Amino acid sequence: MGKKLETTGNTETRYAAIDIGSNAVRLLIKRVDPNEDDRLTKMVLIRIPLRLGIDAFSLGEISKEKVKNLIRLMKAYRQLMKIYDVAAFRACATSAMRDARNGAEIIRKVRKATGIPIEIIDGQEEARMIYNNHIEYMKDRCGNFMYIDVGGGSTEINLLVNGQLLVSRSYNIGTIRMLNQAVAEEEWMRLQYDMTEIARSYPHIDIIGSGGNINKLYRLSPAKDETAQRIATDDLAALHASIERMTVEERIEQLGLKPDRADVIVPAGTIFLYIARCLQARYIYVPMIGLADGIIDAIYVEHKRAALSRQIPIE
To answer: What is the pLDDT of residues 52-66, one digit of tens each?
Structure first.
């Protein structure tokens, strides 16, 4: 990865990822299961909707109140990693922090207050880290797949052909950006052009969807194929249309969505369907994984390659 990993002084094979997104901040903790061929098994997943992107995409910087809340949350996550005896962790910030004028200042404040170093990763690295999920999900899968993660501030795509990563790109198109009408028309045009060109070169592409919104859409669909863990594009379009006709309040009451999910789920569906139509994809596979999984996969791979010599305790 070329990045330093924060490690504890123990030998426990438990890893953590902090994903500081535009909509929510997640802590994921996994352990290596020796009884399942060293498969990574989820222990803890916490998601707090700080919505940093609302400030970043409309004001150009993140407000003092949201910075205070981020520091409070990082302190809590630090303690949880200590409780779970995490061996190594990595904290990454994506689109909102990339766009915020005060992003670097926030990182310094968080490091000083909590000891947690945060990396602002660019869209290409974010896409590649999401691709790392193939360690868990893409083994032995053949064919053409577009791995898509839709976040609050950006959408990351990875083209997999017979398990090999051929294309990795990022677009400033996300759910919070759409709600704030902050997506440039040129970005939609770039996405359309790229997807159309890829479809010409690699026909019969299906999608692997990543992120909380596609996970929720999959769960809500009465037509999903649970055996294959996928939903047909036409069925997603029908579900999306019905949700789009509802008010946010109706989505909360009738579908049981949380308020911070009820508004972003529609733009997320719009992005997935836009790409699916460009690719003429028939299905979207939904393995219920995301960027935090990719971060942990990367830590795991690095630990397998070589034992880390530098030990940094979580205090």
So the answer is: 999 999 999 999 999
- pLDDT digits over 160-172, tens only? 888 788 999 999 9
SS (H, E, C) the chain: CCCCCEECCCCCCEEEEEEECCCCEEEEEEEEEHHHCCEEEEEEEEEECCCHHHHHHHHCCCCHHHHHHHHHHHHHHHHHHHHCCCCEEEEEECHHHHHCCCHHHHHHHHHHHHCCCEEECCHHHHHHHHHCCHHHHCCCCCCEEEEEEECCCCEEEEEEECCEEEEEEEECCCHHHHHCCCCCHHHHHHHHHHHHHHHHHCCCEEEEEECHHHHHHHHHCCCCECCCCEEEHHHHHHHHHHHHCCCHHHHHHHHCCCHHHHCCHHHHHHHHHHHHHHHCCCEEECCCCCHHHHHHHHHHHHHHHCCCCCCCCCC
- Which pTM does this prediction carry? 0.84
